[in-house]
Amino acid sequence: SQQGEEDPQALSIQEGENATMNCSYKTSINNLQWYRQNSGRGLVHLILIRSNEREKHSGRLRVTLDTSKKSSSLLITASRAADTASYFCATASMDSNYQLIWGAGTKLIIKP
Amino acid sequence: GAGVSQTPSNKVTEKGKYVELRCDPISGHTALYWYRQSLGQGPEFLIYFQGTGAADDSGLPNDRFFAVRPEGSVSTLKIQRTERGDSAVYLCASSLGPGGQDTQYFGPGTRLTVL
Question: Tell me, what's the pLDDT at A1?
Answer without folding.
Answer: 45
